[in-house]
Design goal:
The chain is mostly beta strands. The protein is built from no helices and 18 strands. It has a 16-stranded antiparallel beta sheet with strand order 3-4-5-6-7-8-9-10-11-12-13-14-15-16-17-18, with no helix packed on it. The protein has a two-stranded antiparallel ribbon with strand order 1-2.
Length: 261
């Protein structure tokens, strides 16, 4: 709009009231938007807010950035953009989220630094096979810090969606990498009955067994065998300690046999 100023040769000047710039992708989805504010002292536009969006081929939002304008009279531009929100996402072909990262603004380096990060993976049956999480640790490095692991778990599943293994980690801050903690192994028969339960802990650079059990079942799904194993440190393997077998006679009566070391 026209601002009257008798001191000017033209009797006034144009004063900005609204200035916005928006861009769109080929799917007509907004990808950038900048809103400006009028600096009447210097008669120019300054930033006010800025939004940036990115999408993958399936139209999932994979990046969002938000900024506000920080006024700074000492800056030739009148100020600078300061981030308020940044998030990144990733998805697999099955539309499952595989990455989620959040950031925060560092005034020390005038740029984004990490805040939280979650990585996930899935098998072809949509079972989650990886859960990996991090938080940002601030230090004096040029990057402003590094990712510090908090959780890492890996899993496998059979075609019936039953968990067949797990592997758990802990963060080693000295090496800035993951170390093993524990693992499990499970097996099932064709009727989904548990036939093996095996567990280990990571100790002094090697796996040490903590539990092993085996089971067997008859055609009716009744348990017919149970075996228990203990870890032998000398052999570095499980050895049997107890076994119980159950049989049905012709009249359906149950008989048991126990064996032990």
């Amino acid at each position: 709009q026209w601002a009257i100023d008798p001191a000017l040769p033209d009797g006034g000047y144009w004063k900005g009231t609204k200035y916005e710039v928006t861009t769109y992708n080929d799917k007509n989805v907004e990808t950038d938007k900048i809103i400006y504010q009028w600096d009447d002292t210097n008669r120019r536009w300054l930033g006010n807010s800025k939004s940036i969006y990115e999408f993958d081929a399936a139209n999932h939002l994979i990046l969002e950035e938000q900024y506000t304008w920080s006024l700074d009279p000492a800056n030739p531009d009148g100020g600078y953009w300061q981030g308020t929100k940044k998030e990144e996402f990733g998805y697999n072909a099955a539309n499952q989220q595989t990455k989620a990262i959040t950031y925060e603004w560092s005034t020390a380096i005038n740029d984004w630094i990490g805040k939280t990060k979650v990585l996930s993976d899935y098998d072809s049956n949509k079972n989650q096979t990886l859960n990996e999480q991090y938080t940002w640790t601030i230090d004096a490095s040029p990057e402003g810090g590094y990712w510090h692991g908090t959780v890492k778990e890996e899993y496998t599943f059979n075609k019936n969606k039953q968990q067949t293994s797990s592997l758990i980690y802990v963060w080693n801050d000295t090496n800035r990498d993951w170390d093993y903690v524990s693992k499990t192994k499970s097996e099932y028969d064709t009727k989904k009955n548990l036939t093996l339960d095996e567990r280990y802990d990571w100790q002094n650079g090697a796996w040490v067994g903590t539990l092993k059990k085996e089971y067997a079942y008859n055609a009716q799904g009744q348990q017919t065998m149970f075996a228990y194993y203990a870890w032998d440190d000398a052999k570095k393997a499980f050895v049997g300690t107890q076994k119980e077998e159950t049989e049905l006679d012709a009249e359906g009566r149950i008989g048991s046999h126990q064996h032990g070391r």
